[in-house]
Known about the structure:
Layout: E1 9-14, H1 17-20, E2 33-34, E3 37-38, H2 39-42, H3 45-50, H4 52-66, H5 73-80, E4 86-91, H6 97-101, E5 106-108, E6 111-118, E7 125-127, E8 144-148, H7 158-167, E9 170-174, E10 196-199, E11 211-214, H8 218-230
Parallel strand pairs: 1-4, 1-9, 4-5, 9-10, 10-11
Antiparallel strand pairs: 2-3, 6-7, 6-8
Bound molecules: nicotinamide-adenine-dinucleotide.
Nicotinamide-adenine-dinucleotide (NAD) binds next to helix 1.
Amino acid sequence: xxxxxxxxxxxxxxxxxxxxxxxxxxxxxxxxxxxxxxxxxxxxxxxxxxxxxxxxxxxxxxxxxxxxxxxxxxxxxxxxxxxxxxxxxxxxxxxxxxxxxxxxxxxxxxxxxxxxxxxxxxxxxxxxxxxxxxxxxxxxxxxxxxxxxxxxxxxxxxxxxxxxxxxxxxxxxxxxxxxxxxxxxxxxxxxxxxxxxxxxxxxxxxxxxxxxxxxxxxxxxxxxxxxxxxxxx
Length: 233
Ligand SMILES: NC(=O)c1ccc[n+]([C@@H]2O[C@H](COP(=O)([O-])OP(=O)(O)OC[C@H]3O[C@@H](n4cnc5c(N)ncnc54)[C@H](O)[C@@H]3O)[C@@H](O)[C@H]2O)c1
């Protein structure tokens, strides 16, 4: 296959590491803490039942922070890939930095920070940029919660994501510890001949004939891969 002249289907799987250089912390890098919080306290249905105010405040802080940060060179390079290729970003991130960089086809596996949803009707989803508090109700009078997939909850977009990976000519993986399932299992859906590029300063996958590992920050490794895939003959 001549990778440089065709329009390719490219699936990109991103994790918290792609947003690290924008100033949003990952959690594996700090012993299972997410911005200093125990993830099970702030990212599980049990945590929300036990202390809804603390969980809402955690996401309020994340949402306020998100509105102050910008996409970095990795988000921007991935958006540029669309100039030539058909690109779908499958992200575990709840931020909107891929969209703000210009990517037009983004599948959010774990929900979106800038949306809220009804605790009674999961299909009732609203855009939400301000703080979300106890007493903020949906139109059918039920409490709203962050539109986030918590640990132990179904991942509704996983089948869409598996289909995208199974159709891809190339798979790029950026900034993920590959420890959160079912997202980590998506690689298994790739055609066995598909080249994989993996960018992470602490890579959890080893280099093989098929897998090229860039053991460096996303802002360095991703533009190199993108340049290679956009190069004209
Ligand atoms: N930005 C966000 O939306 C955000 C941030 C933190 C956590 N989360 C949630 O936490 C879960 C975490 O799983 P995960 O695998 O995405 O993250 P993770 O925290 O488990 O792993 C982060 C990975 O990023 C790598 N990394 C750190 N700095 C990097 C850089 N500059 N460039 C490239 N890689 C870098 C680390 O080596 C690590 O492998 C996700 O489900 C996500 O919903 C989201």
